[in-house]
Amino acid sequence: DTEVTQTPKHLVMGMTNKKSLKCEQHMGHRAMYWYKQKAKKPPELMFVYSYEKLSINESVPSRFSPECPNSSLLNLHLHALQPEDSALYLCASSQSTAFYNSPLHFGNGTRLTVT
Amino acid sequence: KQEVTQIPAALSVPEGENLVLNCSFTDSAIYNLQWFRQDPGKGLTSLLLIQSSQREQTSGRLNASLDKSSGRSTLYIAASQPGDSATYLCAVQTGTASKLTFGTGTRLQVTL
């Protein structure tokens, strides 16, 4: 079982809906990440949080809004998405962005379909 | 811009065979290289992490090597098993904030 838990596992939403993806880890990690993965493609970084502060935004459209309410939780708020946003959204965590020997731990992802 | 390539894109081998997966990257200024496996529809599982100052890492039947100067890494899997069937991804960390650039992946199938 993965130590990073993502909910929901599957989500279908219309282009006018507002929904949120949730991610939780209890490993004491202080860095958390959102990745987007399209079918048969490698994951692409979206956001990085370090000590609950946003440190990287990879020019992601504003219809994706991340939130890190505490060191264990990471949310991704979705609004007015497009069908091309359909993908597997992966959350990951690591000890710290400053540790170069700290592997990333991934959750199983949320499969998002935008209709 | 860092680019990471994996060869082959797909590989099918009979059970018990030893195999090598390849990863190459264009910018040798990396902090580490990580190997992951991904099962269909699932997240990524970390297999091995090699720091830039290291040459190899081993875990069970897996051995990963790193030649930073030539921009190459290999993942050696000994005595392959059907349970090893998955997509294997390498990723390099460059710059700050643990930003990883992933390779294109190798889809491995181990047959009985």
Structure characterization notes:
The complex is a heterodimer of chains A (115) and B (112). Chain A has no helices and eleven strands. In chain A, strands 2, 4, 5, 6, 9, 10 and 11 form a seven-stranded mixed beta sheet that branches. Chain A has a four-stranded antiparallel beta sheet with strand order 1-3-8-7, with no helix packed on it. The mean pLDDT of chain A is 93. The N and C termini of chain A lie far apart (31 Å). With 115 residues, chain A is mainly beta. In chain A, strand 7 (64-70) and strand 8 (73-79) form a beta hairpin. Chain A is 0% helix and 56% strand. The radius of gyration of chain A is 13 Å and the shape is globular. In chain B, strands 2, 4, 5, 9, 10 and 11 form a six-stranded mixed beta sheet that branches. In chain B, strands 1-3-8-7-6 form a five-stranded antiparallel beta sheet, with no helix packed on it. Chain B has strands spanning 4-7, 10-14, 19-25, 32-38, 44-51, 56-59, 62-67, 72-77, 86-93, 100-102, 106-111. The mean pLDDT of chain B is 94. With 112 residues, chain B is mainly β. Chain B starts with a strand and ends with a strand. Chain B is 0% helix and 57% strand. Chains A and B meet through strand 5, strand 9 and strand 10 of A and strand 4, strand 5 and strand 9 of B.
Using a beta-carbon cutoff below 8 angstroms, give the protein chain pair with the largest interface and the number of residues from each chain: A-B, 30 and 25 residues
Q: Which spans of chain B have pLDDT < 50 for at least 5 consecutive residues?
A: none
Largest sheet of chain A: 7 strands, mixed
Q: Give the class of chain B from helix and strand content and strand pairing.
A: mainly beta
What's the overall average pLDDT of chain B, rounded? 94
Net shape of chain A:
globular
